Automatic annotation (TrEMBL):
This is Alpha-ribazole phosphatase. SMART domains: PGAM. GO terms for molecular function: alpha-ribazole phosphatase activity. The lineage of its organism: Bacteria, Bacillati, Bacillota, Clostridia, Eubacteriales. PROSITE patterns: PG_MUTASE. One of its GO terms (biological process) is cobalamin biosynthetic process. The active site is at residues 16, 89. It holds the Pfam family His_Phos_1. Substrate binds at residues 15-22, 65. Its EC number is 3.1.3.73.
Amino acid sequence: MAVREVVFLRIFLVRHGETAWNAKLRFQGHVDVPLSGRGREQARALAVRLEKENFAAAYASDLGRAVETAGILTVPHNLAVQQLTGLREINFGAWEGLTAEQIRARYDKEIRQWWDKPLQTRIPGGETLSEVAARVTAEIRRIVENRPGEQVLVVCHGGPIRTIVASILGMDLNQYWRLRLDNACLSIIDFPAWDRGMLTLFNDCSHLAGGE
């Protein structure tokens, strides 16, 4: 009896390059902070690594740091970047631009609740993680269902990528912060079907100087 070939979608999932706020450990969500010089260098290094891949499409969050990273990555592939609002980082509301220490000083009760139960806790002026998970999952599912058997590039943010990975691994999303993600890192997920996602690479930075 012939063995049936499994046809799957492969998503190359990239976190955007570094910004000035990343370097200063400031909470960065919907505020549109551009890439730093170092962030652009990181994106160019990853572009070299991925230049021989065959991508059928490229998607990015519509925030500038993701769009610019994706634009650098797609130069060798002559692909237009499709911008998806649903792939945005979590809206940190009143916490945008603040460090963890500043947030603890001003919103101690709220940030304690958020670290414990981010799915249910609304950031002042922002989102709950459950809202982020719903919009990010909807976008990724559409990609998976519309592009079977292809390779695609998706550039977005730490929060959405953690949410995607935690979901396919069956993790408690309240623990999603345990997944480390560095700027310009590469993760790969194979999808034989939407509910059969397999993580094959995670937070790989080997293309960066020193594997940072």
